[in-house]
Design goal:
Length: 171
């Protein structure tokens, strides 16, 4: 598939690329979850298969409601900004050892009578930036949770003042 002039791709459902996906001018890719009585559910996930080749405009931004999977054997742009958002009420994962992220934002809220997990896979590095904010919330009042399971690396570039550091060390 080749799109040479589209700067944005918005898709309700999942994209799995096992070939070549050329979005040469696209810098914004937004994948949304959906429910359909005739075709089932879609998480709003992006998967670049083991031999998949994805080209985009420089410094692309992905917003996904589901999984983001890019193995290190596939070809994917560097300097990706990733936002994990939405209300998809299933377990999801980021397995992207083949991607260099500029920053990652996590902002997911569900309301469901079930525990859910967002898993960061081994080999995946999630840079949260200098003002990190992570929201994983299950707003069901009956004690269900939304858990972050980190098997990779999560980093923050925020710094503490010397005064704050000393205060932390003295307590």
């Amino acid at each position: 598939f080749t799109a040479t002039s589209a700067t944005q791709l918005t898709f309700n459902g999942d994209i799995t690329n096992n070939g070549t996906l050329s979005l040469n001018a696209a810098t914004t890719i937004d994948l949304n979850s959906y429910t359909s009585a005739t075709s089932g559910d879609g998480k709003g996930s992006f998967t670049n298969g083991a031999s998949g080749v994805l080209t985009t405009g420089s410094n692309p931004t992905f917003t996904v409601n589901g999984d983001f999977v890019v193995p290190n054997t596939s070809t994917c742009p560097s300097n990706v900004t990733l936002t994990l958002d939405g209300t998809y009420s299933g377990d999801t994962s980021v397995d992207a050892s083949g991607v260099t992220f500029t920053s990652v934002t996590i902002n997911r809220t569900i309301s469901g009578s079930v525990n859910r997990t967002l898993t960061i896979a081994s080999g995946t590095t999630i840079p949260l930036g200098s003002s990190p904010s992570v929201t994983l919330a299950n707003t069901t009042a009956s004690g269900y949770t939304y858990t972050l399971q980190n098997n990779g690396t999560i980093s923050s570039t925020s710094t503490r003042s010397e005064e704050h550091t000393s205060e932390l060390q003295s307590h």
